[in-house]
Amino acid sequence: MKNNPTTPRGSAQGHDISINLLKANDFVADGIRKQMSTKNILLINLVSSPGSGKTALLEATVQRLKDQLNMAVLVGDLETERDADRIKKHGIPALQIVTGGICHLEAQMIHQVLDQQGIPLDNLDVLFIENVGNLVCPSSFDLGEDIRVTLIAVTEGDDKPKKYPKMFLTSDMMMVTKVDLLPYVPFSVDAVTKDAREVNHEIEVMTASSLKGEGMDAWCEYLLQKVKEKKAETAVTAH
Amino acid sequence: MHEISIARSMIRSLEDELEARQMNVLREIVLEVGELSCVEPILMQNAWEAVTLGTGYEKVELQIEKIRTEVYCSVCDKNFYVHQHRYVCPDCQTPSNQIIRGNELNIRQVKLDEVVESS
C-alpha cells in the first residue's frame, strides 16, 4: 500500500464487517426459550400502547384460570410497582421490572430476574411478560416468548396496525380489548382485522372485555390449548 | 425508538470487535438500518453526535444506509418490496411475511485512516 502512488497518505480504508446490534439480545432470548422449554413453561409476551388493558386482561385471566393453571407474571414499567401489586392481589406470583426510563424490556432483563429466582419456575404452566406500554420499541426485542400478543383497545382507533406495522408483523395474536365500549366509539373490528392481516396474514384475532367478561372464555380456552400443545411439544423433543 | 442506547451499543460493539489501534483511526461507520428496525436516521445521527461527545469518537462520521422491506413470495419464487405496509405480493396477491430484508440494524463497514507505518 505504501508504494502505491494513487493512494494518498492518510486516506480512509473501508473494512467490511458485520455487527448485528441486536445479536446480544437474540442470544439471550434463545437461552430463555430453551430454559422455558425444559421446564414445560409457556411464555407469553403481552405488548400494547399504554392503557390498552394488559394488566386488566391478566387480572381477569388469573381470576378465571388460577385453579386450572399455575401462572406467574413479570411486569415491565418505567416506574412504580403498581401493576405487579395489582396482580399479586389475585394470589399469583408477580414481579415488577422497573426499567428506569428504558422504553421496552430486553431479554437480558428477563434472564436476570429468572436467574435470581425472583419467580418460582417449578410446576409453572404459564409465565406472562407484561411489556412496557409502547407499540414501537418492544417489537424489536425477542424475549424468548412462544406467543406474542398485541392488545389494541377499541378506544385507540382502528388504524394502529398500519401505523405500527412491525408490532403486528411480529405478533401471533391481536387481542381487541374493551369491546364493551364498542357502541360508543367509531371502531371497526372488521377494519382493524383487515389492516392487521394485510401486515401479517397469519395473525390470530380475538376480542374481549376484561371488565365485563365478553370473549374471556375463548381467550382462556386458547390459553389452556396452548399450554397443552407446549407440554406435548416438550414431551416429543424429550424422547 | 431508543437511538441513544443504540448509539452507546455501537461504541461498545466496535470496541469489542476492533483492536484499540484501529479504534484510534476510526473515521467512518456505515450502519444499515432496515425500515422495520424502527430506527429514525435523523435521530440516529443526533444521538451519535450526543453520545460520542467527550469520548474521542466525536470526529467519527456515521453513514446510514436505509434498507427497504423486501419479502419473499413462494408462489412467484421472487422477492417484492412492501408498499404501504401491505405484505401481499403485487403480482399474484398472495400474502407473505417471510422477510428477506428490512429488519437490519447492522454495522456493515468501518473506514479507518490508513496507518502510515514508520519505515
Notes on the structure:
The complex is a heterodimer of chains A (239) and B (119). By secondary structure, chain A is of the alpha/beta class. Chain A has eight helices and eight strands, in the order βαβαβαβαββααβαβα. In chain A, 45% of the residues are buried. Residues 1-8 of chain A have low confidence and may be disordered. Chain B has 119 residues and is of the alpha+beta class. Chain B has helices at residues 3-17, 20-24, 41-52; strands spanning 26-34, 61-67, 70-73, 78-81, 99-101, 105-113. Chain B has a three-stranded mixed beta sheet. In chain B, helix 3 (41-52) links the parallel strand 1 and strand 2. In chain B, helix 1 (3-17) packs across helix 3 (41-52). The relative contact order of chain B is 0.24. The model of chain B has no long low-confidence stretch (mean pLDDT 92). Classes of the chains: A alpha/beta (239), B alpha+beta (119). Chains A and B meet through strand 1, helix 6 and helix 7 of A and helix 1 and strand 6 of B.
